[in-house]
Sequence to fold (207 residues):
Amino acid sequence: MSYGDPNNPYGQPPQQPPAAPGYGYPQAPPGVPPQQGYGYPQQPAYPGYPGGNMMQQSMPGLLTTARVFLFLISAVQILFAIIYLYVGAIASDAGDSGEDLGLTGMGEAGDAVAGIAIVGALIAAGFAVLSIMLGVKFSRGGQGVRITTVVYGALGGIVGLIMLFIGLDSGLATAIIGPLIWVTFAVIITIAPVVPSGTAWFNRPRY
Fold:
């Protein structure tokens, strides 16, 4: 009995050739370990932007509060501007009426009061515009907005303290509440851009 005879049913089965590698897999030369994946070298991951994972996506809470206070202050300043204009108009009309009645000097006095009231209205309107601009620019502003806000808040705090001392000296509760609220707003507006979270917000990269 010969095991080499291919027609012998009891003989040793012929050896099968090794299976060919699948389609798309390049054959590695002898001695080279097989590559993982589909045979293509792995590409290194692209690094992110410096500090990209640390960039703040939303405005800090203290800055948001200061922004709201700026808008509230601008509303009060606009209201004062309207009141000053109204007082100036009343003074001008009263001076003209006094002149018509023969009261000497009423016209000049009325014009003087009206002029002072108009100046006050223009100052209040100018500060209202500044408050609105600072509040709007908080979202994309840089160091210029930050420094202007700190100076603006500090000056407002000084004025509020003077008004508060006057109110305390008068002993009237109505003369204390308003300046106290004003000083509180000014302090928050001043310190919000200075604390680390505010400084990081104004120093953040912009693309």
